[in-house]
Amino acid sequence: MQKEVWYFIDSGNCSPSFNMACDEALLLWQSEGTMKPTIRFYGWSPPTLSIGYFQTVEKEIDIDAVRAHQLGFVRRPTGGRAVLHDKELTYSVIVPESHPKMPTSVTEAYRVISTGLLEGFKELGLDAYFAIPKNEVELDELKKPRSSVCFDAPSWYELVVEGKKVAGSAQTRQKGVILQHGSILLDIDEDMLFSLFKFKNERIKVRMMEAFKNKAVSINRLTNKKVTIEDAKQAFKKGFEKGLEIELEPYILSEGQLKIIKEIEEEKYLRDEWNFRK
């Protein structure tokens, strides 16, 4: 049986504002019916702290530390907690809510899309599995994140290897379209990560850091062979094709499309009114 063809975009390393504007534009074009469902891979230049749609910068983020590390900073259109995008592969999946592969439940759609990630980890030889709460206590834990840091604990259907979270994802639904994007960690600098957040005192910060090290892990701490970005791209491209039973066709954004992305950047993701809003 012939597989459905989706578009595949490899944007390479882009600015934080471009990355979020591009995902938003792809959602817009999907809603207008002018694009096939799309999977996009990208990186960040400079390394960037992205925060979730509902987070409060003043309360949670040490913006002076973000600037001291010369990091980019952007608010995502999706929920979830803050992510340091550095040594990682970032992905986004843009697909209509009405697509036959997509369940109506947010959680179940998350599982279907994340099957592509699961298969990608398997391509790298890692025994990944979905985090699913076993009882009411675990379910309660998932509902109450302990810190502002995304990888602090796995959520429903987040990917886990050896009991530790290896990918963090967030989803939004707008204009009849699902946008899910997330981080696949190749390496992580915990000291830099935890310097970017506000804590009541140093003792709490140290305790959170220790807990984080027990709950999150990067790919290169799990494998003997160093996985490069190119290795990851190859593995997760195959993973999405296998997991979603699709064929990915390379797609290059046109000059007209890039112009629209630039307009969204300037109107939204480059503005303090968006990034620092209360």
From TrEMBL:
Gene3D superfamilies: Bira Bifunctional Protein, Domain 2. GO terms for biological process: lipoate biosynthetic process; protein lipoylation. Catalyzes the transfer of endogenously produced octanoic acid from octanoyl-acyl-carrier-protein onto the lipoyl domain of GcvH, an intermediate carrier during protein lipoylation. It is an enzyme of class 2 (transferase). It comes from Calidifontibacillus erzurumensis. PROSITE patterns: BPL_LPL_CATALYTIC (PS51733). InterPro entries: aa-tRNA-synth_II/BPL/LPL, BPL_LPL_catalytic, LipM, Octanoyltrans_LipM/LipL. CDD domains: LplA (cd16443). Its EC number is 2.3.1.181. This is Octanoyltransferase LipM. The record marks K165 as: Lowers pKa of active site Cys. It catalyses: octanoyl-[ACP] + L-lysyl-[protein] = N(6)-octanoyl-L-lysyl-[protein] + holo-[ACP] + H(+). HAMAP family: LipM (MF_02118). Pathway: Protein modification; protein lipoylation via endogenous pathway; protein N(6)-(lipoyl)lysine from octanoyl-[acyl-carrier-protein]. It comes from the Bacteria. Monomer. Residues 33-248 form the BPL/LPL catalytic domain. In the reaction, the free carboxyl group of octanoic acid is attached via an amide linkage to the epsilon-amino group of a specific lysine residue of lipoyl domains of lipoate-dependent enzymes. The reaction proceeds via an octanoyl-thioester enzyme intermediate. Belongs to the octanoyltransferase LipM family. Keywords: Acyltransferase, Ligase, Transferase. GO terms for molecular function: ligase activity; lipoyl(octanoyl) transferase activity. The keyword Ligase applies. The active site is at C150.
